[in-house]
Design a protein that fits this description.
Blueprint: E1 7-12, H1 18-27, E2 40-41, E3 48-53, H2 58-63, E4 69-73, H3 74-83, E5 91-96, E6 102-109, E7 124-127, H4 130-140, E8 145-148, H5 156-159, E9 164-169, H6 173-177, E10 180-189, E11 191-196, H7 203-222, E12 224-232, H8 236-241, E13 250-253, E14 260-268, H9 273-281, E15 285-291
Parallel strand pairs: 1-3, 1-4, 7-8, 7-9
Antiparallel strand pairs: 2-3, 4-11, 5-11, 6-9, 6-10, 12-14, 12-15, 13-14
Helix pairs in contact: 3-4
This protein binds adenosine-5'-triphosphate and magnesium ion.
The site of adenosine-5'-triphosphate (ATP) has 15 residues, from helix 3.
């Protein structure tokens, strides 16, 4: 394989991962010249180009050295590792990216009895992920027939081509619409930055390291929330105990109310309604959860 001096990242041409992947790369300071419906996008500032392809092709392009990195679902990456053939170079998940979240699950028709994996013995399970399903069935020691389908897996039980399915689930709406019940989760998936196990020992390796650093910063900010609230000094300890993880909160006095404090806390990750309700019960008032735009510690 000819060496390249520019980094090449494979990403999905058109689908669920396209917009969030481009958004993430843009936040990392990368800009691209050509329109995104072309196969190739030329990087303007940094020596980083994009190859826009079907998501299933991404792990193979990295394994062959055609691309240095790829943004792809963990489901597709792990399936490739299991079924990509003997010459497939092992790939590495460099970073989870926090979007494209879904799970690979087994679902059965509502009228099928299911309590444990052994209930699948002698049954047919339809899937587009024969590698991941086969691997799971082996660990469970169950003898089940895997029916590989390219798409529309969820209708296989109705068509009579399978007894159960193994497919990606996000909200579960598709399952409900097809009278299916989710019974096992095989894999929790999200988009990941995939690459070879060892980085190239040239400028591309340096560029990847720079990109990883920027990604970490962008992901950290994206997942941070600023929590603002007011509490009296007497409930401060109870409120502080309930705060989601993060650095020590900052306390500010409230003018004209000596027993009151303003509390400001940086939280790593979402703050749920339930957490807010608990904190309120402990004595907090005037609560705000704000996204963080940029952060320089
Ligand atoms: P392509 O034309 O690139 O092959 P595709 O139809 O295989 O596209 P999409 O449906 O766009 O792919 O899904 C891309 C990825 O998004 C999946 O591999 C998975 O990681 C993630 N994803 C998140 N939620 C879902 C979902 N509900 N169904 C399918 N994929 C999902
Ligand atoms: Mg695909």
């Amino acid at each position: 394989m000819k060496t390249r001096d520019r980094l090449r990242i494979a990403m999905q041409k058109s689908g669920r991962l396209t917009e969030p992947a481009l958004d993430l790369l843009t936040r990392c300071g990368l800009t691209f010249r050509q329109s995104r419906d072309k196969l190739f996008c030329f990087g303007e500032g940094e020596p980083v180009d994009l190859l826009l392809v079907r998501d299933d092709d991404i792990p193979g392009l990295i394994a062959q050295g055609v691309c240095d990195l790829g943004i792809v679902g963990r489901n597709v990456l792990n399936e490739f590792q299991l079924t990509g053939g003997v010459d497939a170079a092992p790939l590495h998940e460099w970073r989870p990216l926090g979007f494209g979240r879904c799970r690979l699950s087994i679902a059965v028709p509502h009228d099928m009895a299911y309590e444990r994996a052994s209930d699948l013995g002698g049954q047919r399970v339809a899937t587009s992920y024969p590698g991941l399903l086969g691997d799971w069935l082996r660990t469970q020691g169950v003898d089940t027939q895997v029916v590989t389908l390219a798409g529309s897996v969820e209708i296989a039980p109705k068509l009579g081509t399978a007894d159960a399915i193994c497919d990606l689930v996000q909200s579960g709406g598709t399952l409900v619409a097809n009278q299916l019940r989710e019974v096992e989760v095989l894999l929790e998936s999200e988009a990941v930055l995939a690459g070879p196990q060892t980085l190239p020992a040239d400028e591309r390796g340096d560029m990847i390291e720079l990109l990883l650093k920027r990604l970490d910063g962008v992901i950290q900010v994206r997942e941070s929330r600023l929590l603002l609230l007011q509490t009296s000094r007497s409930t401060l300890e109870a409120v502080t105990r309930l705060l989601p993880g993060g650095p020590q909160p900052t306390l500010l006095p409230v003018a004209g109310q000596p027993d009151q404090l303003m509390l400001q806390a940086l939280c790593a990750g979402e703050v749920s309604w339930r957490q807010l309700e608990e904190i309120k019960k402990a004595g907090a008032r005037e609560m705000f959860v704000l996204p963080v735009e940029k952060m320089l510690a």
